[in-house]
Each structure stands twice: as structure tokens, then as C-alpha cells.
Amino acid sequence: MKYLPPDVALGKMTAMVAAAKRLRAEFGGG
Amino acid sequence: MRFLRAHTRRPIKMTVPGPFTMSQQAQNDYYPSEEAAAIDYAVAVNEEIRDLFAAGADIVQIDEPYMQARPDKARQFGLRALNRALAGITGTTAVHICFGYAAIIHQRPSGYSFLPELAGCACSQVSIETAQSTLDCSVLKELDGKKIMVGCLDLNDLTVEAPETIVARIKRALPYVRPEDVILAPIAG
Question: Could you tell me how many helices (H) and strands (E) chain B has, helices first?
């Protein structure tokens, strides 16, 4: 992650959080 | 750690280098064997982990990328060194293995050469990368009882993934890991 441009790294992390929310909605969990 | 703990109520995770990995990276001119060096590193790592929990860490992760890079030696004494580093530790701990920095190592195998063996480690969490390697996730069934940090970002690709792409990557693991045992993670570096 440290080798990525900051905006790319932030974008990927933001997408991961969005994915986590979708998975929680589908499967539950906190 | 104390500074960080004083400024947030959110969970704090800290990483430390693993004793096996350090034994593979360092030149040994003192110990009678690499294993002896690894075990002594483990004693020091154990003390560091205890200090980190005492200072307020919630999770401590031990990074052991050389277990993947040197699986034969890892089988000889890697797990023993790792578990020595974890001796008596009651806080939440994780072990991380990977294929190296994506920006440096572009070609990935489709499977780990050292992963099922981690079922025998004292960590409650195992952190792996799956995205860039398109890992065959069936190996994860060997780690029943562990929480799996599923690395789900491809750091060799400057394109930002769509959330549905990441969801699909995580779902590749779900036939082999209970959903409640899955933790999403970017991956090392």
C-alpha cells in the first residue's frame, strides 16, 4: 500500500469499506 | 502506543516483525544455528508483544513473510519460533504471510507454500493475500477455528477496484471460511 499514490490507496481503502458494508448487509456481523 | 491510546477509543493494531523472518534476514555470526537465533528473536518479540498490550494495543500482528519464501526452513522451526513469541500472550494476535510487496514482486503463485501449517500456531487470526495471487481459497478450510484476514485489494494495479469486485473476491473464500470468521484486509505494505 505504501508504494501506491495516496489517492489510489485511499480509493482502494474506501472501496474495501464499501464492500465490507455490503457483505455485512448480506451475511450479518459487526 | 501510549500516545495513540491516549488519542483514540478505536481499536489499535500494531505489527511486529516475526522471529522466523528476522532469523532469515539477519546474518548469524553468533548462534549455533538459525533455529537458535530464531528462538532468541522470539523471546525478544514476546517481550515486545507484552509491552504493546500493556500500553494499550488491542491486536498485535506478527509479520512472517519469509515463512512463504522459505517454507522448508519454516517447517523445521518456524512454527516453534512463532509460538515461542506468543507464549503466555492472552491478547488478540494475528500472523501475516504474503508474497512480498506488489510493487516489487509482480508475479504471484496461485497458492502458498506454507499456510496449512499455521493451524498449529497460537494466533487467533491469520492474515493472507488473495487478490493479486487469485489464491485457491480451498486451502483456508485447513485453518478452521482461526479468523481469516482476507487480503482483497490488488496492489499491483493502480485501478481502484469497484466494491462489487472486492465482494466477489471475498466470496471466493466463503465456501471455506464461515462469514463471521472473515475480516477484510487490504494486504501487506
Answer: 7, 6
pLDDT bracket for residue B132 (50, 70, 90): confident
Say if the Cβ atoms of B160 and A20 lie within 8 Å.
Answer: no
Rounded CA separation B115/B72 (Å): 12
Residue with grid cell 528473536, as numbered in its chain: B41
Give residue for cell 512463504. Answer: B68
Mean pLDDT of B42-67: 97
Q: Which pTM was predicted?
A: 0.91
Cβ neighbours of A13 in B, within 8 Å: 153, 186
Instruction: For residue B51, give the nearest of B82, B5, B97 by alpha carbon.
Output: B5
A24 Cβ under 8 Å from any chain B Cβ: no
Report how far residue A30's alpha carbon sits from residue B3's, in angstroms, rounded to the nearest whole number.
Answer: 27
The ipTM of this complex is 0.94
Distance CA B181, CA B148 (A): 6
